[in-house]
Each structure stands twice: as structure tokens, then as C-alpha cells.
Amino acid sequence: MGKLDVNAISIATSIYRIAQGLRNKMEREVLASQGLSWTAFSLLYDLWIWKSMETRKLAESAGVSKATISNITNTLERKGLCYRKQDGQDKRLTYVSITDQGVSVMEELYPMFHQAEIGLVSMLNADDRRLMSDKLRVIIRGNGFEKTNKKFFNKGGIT
Predict the structure, then answer these.
(1) Considering the domain boundaries, does residue 106 fall inside one?
(2) Less packed terminus of the chain by CB within 10 Å, N or C?
(3) Distance CA 133, CA 115 (A)
(4) Domain total in the chain
(5) Read out DSSP for 94-113?
(6) Phi, psi at residue 85, to the nearest 5°?
(7) Do 59 and 108 sit in the same domain of this protein?
(8) What digits encode the pLDDT tens for the residues 36-90?
(9) Share of the chain above pLDDT 90, in %
């Protein structure tokens, strides 16, 4: 094995720690009020943006299996936040749509979620946030990660 790139190790480890910390913080401080997991929130967020999505696309967007989407959808349906509907032409396809109650939950949660995002980076000044955002986009694009999360990259999120 060649010489270790300590900076590469540090960057990758830091990104992982930040991602895990962000997920845990959001679940504990924001999503718990509605009894939502990170993945359930992600699914509900997609539905809030797109109104309705086919289950395979939801799974792809969330980076989870169709079985996971099915389980989460069951929970969200019980809460009255979404519903499933089979495609009229192709019975193999199922769409998940957000309910009015789901929209209300997202309208309540998202401002709190965004405030927590701001808090996460509050120790950085505006220039540092912009630079970090740019550098993270380079890593995302360089590894093709935007392809696994197109909903965010193409719908007003990271460009």
C-alpha cells in the first residue's frame, strides 16, 4: 500500500460524521415532533415537491429499496400524510401522493428543518459557507452522486 493521504481520510471521515450528526440532530430536534424518521421525511419532502411519484422513483430518490419505501409509505398512510394509487394503464405501477394533511405537516416542519440547517453551519461566515458549498458540489459531481438524488439537484437545490 502506498503512502496514506491523511487529508483524504479526514475529509471523508468528516463528511460521514457530519451526515450522521445532521441526520440524528434533525430526527431528534425537528422530526420527532411528527414522529418521522429521516427517510420518512425525505419521502414526504419528495411528495411535497412533486405531489405524486411512482414508488420506484421514490426509492431511487431516497437511496433505499422499494420494500423500504413500502414500509415507510404504510406508516405515512396510517398518519394520513400520503396515499397510494395504482396506475390506471399499468397495474404494476403504484404512485404515492401527498395528502392535504401531509402538505400541512411539511409547511410546519420545513421552516424548522431549515433553521436547523442554518444552525448547523452558523459558526461559518457567509464566504466560508459559499466556499464549502462549492467544494462539496465538486465532490458530489466528481463522484456522480447527483445522479442518485436528482430531485434535489434539479428542483432548486444544489445546481
Answers:
(1) yes
(2) N
(3) 17
(4) 2
(5) EEEEE-HHHHHHHHHHHHHH
(6) -150, 130
(7) yes
(8) 999 999 999 999 999 999 999 999 888 899 999 999 999 999 999 999 999 888 8
(9) 81
